[in-house]
Amino acid sequence: MFEKSTLLAALIGLSVALPVVQPAQASDRYKSRPPVVISPDLAAPWVLQLGGAQRPALQAPRATQPQVRTYQRQVQRRAPEAALVKPVAARPNKPARTQIDPVYLPQTVAYETPHKPGTIVIDTNNRFLYLVAGNGQARRYGVGVGKPGFEWAGKHKVTAKREWPDWTPPSEMIAREAAKGHYLPARMEGGPQNPLGARAMYLGSTLYRIHGTNAPWTIGSAVSSGCIRMRNEDVVDLYERVDVGATVVVM
Question: How many CB atoms lie within 10 A of CB 242?
Fold first, then answer.
């Protein structure tokens, strides 16, 4: 009995000695706010959320206009036909025709003739050169011939052959072209730009030649001053098949 009364008295004395603790209120948690260190970047999102930090002034966003796509009708303006076509004289390096008719390409054809093999026969009306092969056949090439007023016919021998020949225009040609406003050189060395082209075969003592050209699109036309012109690849082929002294018949 004594032990129980003694323990009860000790507990009562302890409760008197302990201070009374009141329950904490939520409003008393931060009666004095802790210091806040502001970031140098006052526009940082986390700074803007701090109650104690002054919200920096921000520029009002610019009013954006709704993007309206406007579709303009595209009208293709075509130049008049006359404006698209330039005269040949104004574009010497761009001829109007750059290809020849396939009929003027080299080929072996049936050709009955009294001339012996190795003879060259030139049909100026149809723009063909035939190298007689015998057995009723000939190798045929397309050629360019003399323009109106420069046609001729006759029979000659091949008196000389030249590779990449020089060109010395006759004085008559120089004067004739000068009257048209075209000035020819007194002499032009052989080469791809030379009007005589890659090869030349001289006919008798005349000024006429069978030669190549720097204007292959003129094959099949009457455009020369009397010479017989061929594509460079064709005149090289003929050159290898013909010897000096061969007969040339121009009709």
Answer: 19
Q: pTM of the full predicted structure?
A: 0.61
Exposed, middle or buried, 42 (CB in 10 Å: 0-12/13-18/19+)? middle
H/E element, 177: helix 171-179
Alpha helical stretches, state H, the chain: 2-17, 45-48, 81-84, 171-179, 232-241
* CA-based nearest residue to 194, from 213, 175, 216, 218: 213
Residues 24-48, mean pLDDT to the nearest whole number: 50
211 is catalytic: yes
Q: Residue 246: count other Cβ atoms within 10 Å of its Cβ.
A: 16
Which amino acid does the sequence have at 91? Answer: R
Q: Which one is catalytic: 115, 156, 182, 211? A: 211
Which is the catalytic residue, given 115, 156, 182, 227? 227
Q: Is 115 part of the annotated catalytic residue set?
A: no
Sort 115 into a burial class: Cβ within 10 Å, 0-12 / 13-18 / 19+. middle
Q: Give tens-digit pLDDT for 119-131.
A: 999 999 999 999 9
